[in-house]
Amino acid sequence: MDLTILWFWIIAVLFVGYFVLDGFDFGVGMSLPFLGRDDTDRRVLINTIGPVWDLNETWVIVAGASLFAAFPEWYATLFSGFYLPLLVILIALILRGVSFEYRHQRPEASWKRRFDAMIVVGSALPALLWGVAFANIVRGVPLDANHDFAGSLLDLLNPYALLGGVTTLLLFFTHGVVFVALKTDGGIRHRARKLAARAGVVTVIAAAAFLTWTISSHSATAVVILAVSAAVLLIGALVANAAGREGVAFTLMAGTIATAVLSLFAALFPAVMPAINDPANSLTIANASSSPYTLQMMSWIALCALPLVLVYQGWTYWIFRKRVTREHIPEAAH
């Protein structure tokens, strides 16, 4: 396989890993106002992702670094043209991380409420804006002859991109609530299952509209198969949730997000940044990639490092696999 094609799909897999893993982090953060009836409930929710949220975020760092090394032209155009949305995502992630660490440093309820609000906002904004960004990449943006972004912020706020943002927001929310049902017990678990069922209906509607719109513009066989697979997996996840099979529901939600993201990359291929104003200005895997030597060296590094990362992350999830309950939260904890 050509190394440019290989690295296009490696980057796709890295973003799949990020959206699947940090996606449920975002969902748990957004669920605080809905599932956290008191501070103990909110501590339970935060503790479900406490050992893993920062590890999950390393996937986007690796994806960004790989994008920079393998496709520097793509990286430059993307990060210059999407500077403001990506900056907002970065700030939101920083505030969310700070809130996890600082909310328990003082006992005042007002102190905790402020940081809880930052967790909710810091989870919802990336969930929305990542969808807007990727929908714009698939749709295409105005590019000049030098492959520089030639549009404005308003060009990024088009109906297709906004629908993509709403879809990822709802997918991640449902994914996170299913994860809460998997990782907790008692009242929170039952409330999470009910919330996942209600949120899932809205998610199905938004996802169906977005994937149908994508298929209508990119009708390649691979896109259709992946999009239909995502829809089937999503419905299967909701059925499993209704049956109380949280592990199956979570696995199917992960599969939904994975196949949906892969459908977007399949719709994009072989371009990496289409130019809607002039197709001749589009970035492709051919004119945006690094030298063959660079890609070859990266391939050897990835072959050695990626298995170690996967083993370590799998071991971490295994160590922290037990359910979190209210009984695990000490009365005096703040």
Describe this structure in words.
It comes from Paramicrobacterium humi. It holds the Pfam family Cyt_bd_oxida_II. One of its GO terms (cellular component) is cytochrome complex. Helix 1 packs across helix 12, helix 9 runs antiparallel to helix 12 and helix 10 packs parallel to helix 12. The protein is globular, with a radius of gyration of 20 Å. The chain has 13 helices and 2 strands; from the N terminus they run H-H-H-H-H-H-H-H-H-H-H-H-E-E-H. The chain has a two-stranded antiparallel ribbon. 76% of the residues lie in helices and 1% in strands. By secondary structure, the chain is an all-alpha fold. It has one domain. The mean pLDDT is 92.
Tell me the number of strands: 2
Main β sheet profile:
2 strands, antiparallel
Secondary-structure element pattern, one letter each: HHHHHHHHHHHHEEH
Number of helices: 13
Q: Roughly how many Å is the radius of gyration? A: 20 Å
Strand percentage lies at: under 5%
Task: Give the SSE layout.
Elements: H1 3-30, H2 32-35, H3 39-49, H4 53-70, H5 72-81, H6 83-102, H7 109-139, H8 153-156, H9 159-183, H10 187-217, H11 221-242, H12 246-268, E1 271-273, E2 283-284, H13 292-319
Antiparallel strand pairs: 1-2
Helix pairs in contact: 1-4, 1-7, 1-9, 1-12, 4-5, 4-13, 6-7, 7-9, 7-12, 9-10, 9-12, 10-11, 10-12, 11-12
